[in-house]
Amino acid sequence: MAYNGIVARVRGPVADILLDDGRVVPAVPRGTLKRERRGTLLAVGDRVRVTERRDKDTWVIEEIAPRERALVRRWPNTQGRVDVIVANPDQAFFMFAVRDPYPRLQMLDRLLVIAEDNDIPAAVIVNKIDLDSEGKARELFRDYEQAGYPVFYISVQTGAGVDALREHLRARITVLAGPSGVGKSSLINALEPTVQLPTMAVSRKWRQGRHTTVMAQLIPLSGGGYIVDTPGLREVGLWGVDLDNLDYYFPEFRPYLGQCRFNDCRHLDEPDCAVIRAVEEGKISRRRYESYVSILLSEGT
Ligand code: GDP
Ligand code: ZN
Q1: I want to staple 87 with a disulfide (CB 3.0 to 4.6 A). Which of 45, 80, 129, 246 is the partner?
Q2: Mutation test of ligand 1: which of 186, 187, 189, 217 has the most ligand atoms closer than 8 Å to its C-beta?
Q3: Domain at 254, CATH number
C-alpha cells in the first residue's frame, strides 16, 4: 500500500507525522519494524505508511520507505555507529550573514565537507546584504562561487533575493543550517510555513541530552517543498567524516588531484604537489586550502 506521510519530527519513541492531507499526527512504529530495521529506525524525512488506531489517539507506523540518501553522523570508536539526522535530503543550504554575526568561514568549510561526505548537493545563503554598505559580501564568499557552489545573496529584511531562493526550495527537501543569529527563523517565517508543529508537550525526559541538540524538524512551505531545520548542525565537529577523501571534498581541488608526484599525497609538504602549486599560482584560494589543512590535522589520525 502507498505511503501517506512523512516524518516531521522524532521525539523519543513517538514521531510526528505530516500526513499528505496536511494533518500532523503522533505515531509509534509497529513492534515488528523495530526488529527488522537496523540503525536509526526513523528520521525526519522518512516516508511512511501510517494507519489510525480506532480506539486510541495514536497512529501506527506500518511501513517505512527505503532511504534514498541520508545526512548521517558517524560516531568515532563505536564500531561504526551511525545516526541518521535527516532522511532523503535533496540539498543542504548553509546560511551565514554578511555581518552581525560576522561569518566564520571555517565553520562553513566544515559544513560543506559534511555535505560532500554525504553526497548532498550544497549551496550557501548569505543573508543581511542590507547591512553590506561597502559591498563586501561577494568578496567574502567568492571562494565558494569559484568552488562551484551556488551562493544566494539575500536580505530577509528587505526581501531581496528571497523569491529566487524560494524557487530553489520548491518540491525538495532542503536541510537548512548555520550559526544562530544569521536569520534562519526569519527566513523560514518569510517563506511561510504551512503547518505549525505541535509544541513539545512530551515528557521532559526527551528535551534533555543529545535528543534536543540534534533534533531536526521538517517544515512544509507554502510554495511547495520542505525545510529541515537542524539546530544540531550548529556545533559542527566533523561527524566522523571520512578524511581519506578530504581533498576530494574541496571541489576546487579536484582538477589537480592525481597530478601530484605521490599518489597518496596529502598536499601538506610533499614535493611536487599539484594542489600546493595551484595555491601558489592563485588558482585555489589560500584560505580554503588552509581550512583543508586545519581539518586534516585537527581531526586526522
Ligand atoms: P536565527 O538564530 O538564525 O534563527 O536568526 P533570527 O531569524 O532569529 O534573526 C536574528 C536577528 O537578525 C533578528 O534580530 C532578525 O531581525 C535579524 N535579521 C534577520 N534577517 C535580517 C536581514 O536580512 N537584515 C537584517 N539587518 N537583520 C536581519
Ligand atoms: Zn598533493
Answers
A1: 45
A2: 186
A3: 1.10.40.50
